[in-house]
């Protein structure tokens, strides 16, 4: 989990600046190499290290996948299959990062260009040359400028924690995800002890939570979009399909959290039921039903807060998703390590009741963000605008001051100044 927390922070900044394609290829190569090593490894220490390497590759790819969705929408034989996917990916996967290809009209170049894209671009260039289309040729030639790939900077992810609204949303998201990881962490030990299940049946017990998460994914997306349209219609904001909306006048925090609130309540109650059914050793159906509703409620809260973070940072979606991974994985690692000792000390019922009480307190965070979120967001935007204006003014002052410095130093501006002096001498 620690590797999963760190990896997106390293890859995301590079992805937002240099494109998704190169970052995806790096992640898939790391993932494939780790899988090959895991298939051949028998030493526990090496197994642990390779598992961390595998987590590094796959968790960063999850963050990149979310970024691709944000770009294009307004989310022992294993190595062989991964290798086949990597070949298909390398040949056909297009670049989607807006910093690299804009809205798709700017041709990609270099490592950001797939083989299919390269062949299409060559065909279009030849066609433009035959037709004598100078404008089209200039577009293709202008994009072949070298662009330095910046070194990955994980601190760009940590900077998001300095934003008040983003930090609160990340903590909310991380606490809810921690609850789901805590529930999954107790299943092997408690289910095997209480219900005398073998490894196979313990594994099957995870299906209920997965079905709950799937139900959330299939239903809540439509509800979120419907609520967005409802608020936009109420405020008289026109919606254009395929076009990003200006969110400055839209209370996007209220739009998202109105849908989260029912899932929050469902998940909180399900945690209480889950803990006490284990304490009283009820039928296996009891905790399994609770796991279904934990998956439904927690996935709703987790996925929609992910969407909200992308709304708040549409210019840096991969970095925002990396911040989510960083916070949730570190918190989940601590929660998973603490839950079994908690259950031993205070019974599963009270341990999960404690978690539910934390979620009851978190309801106040929902109402706080619905009330203050838009104001904080606009204040942060105004602060960024003022900072950008100050930087522009400083740059303009430097440009205006450069001729005077140039004339003293004998640079290019000094040459032009000397030319004026010569003309004056001739006139005399």
Structural account:
The structure is a single chain. It is globular and about 80 Å long. It has 428 residues and is mostly helical. The chain has helices spanning 2-18, 20-40, 44-72, 78-92, 98-101, 115-131, 134-142, 155-159, 164-195, 199-204, 207-235, 252-279, 285-312, 317-409, 412-427. Residues 75-86, 136-146 and 405-428 have low confidence and may be disordered. It contains 15 helices and no strands. The longest helix is centred in the last third of the chain and has 93 residues, at 317-409.
Which helices and strands occur, and which strands form pairs?
Elements: H1 2-18, H2 20-40, H3 44-72, H4 78-92, H5 98-101, H6 115-131, H7 134-142, H8 155-159, H9 164-195, H10 199-204, H11 207-235, H12 252-279, H13 285-312, H14 317-409, H15 412-427
**How would you state the average pLDDT, rounded?**
76
Distance between the termini: 81 Å
- The helix fraction, in percent, is over 70%
The total beta strand count reads: 0
Count of separate DSSP helical elements: 15
Specify Rg, calculated over alpha carbons: 27 Å
In the CATH hierarchy, what is the architecture of the largest domain at level 2? Up-down Bundle
Number of structural units classed as domains: 2
Protein name: Major facilitator superfamily (MFS) profile domain-containing protein
InterPro entries: MFS, MFS_trans_sf
Subcellular location: Membrane
Keywords: Membrane, Transmembrane, Transmembrane helix, Transport
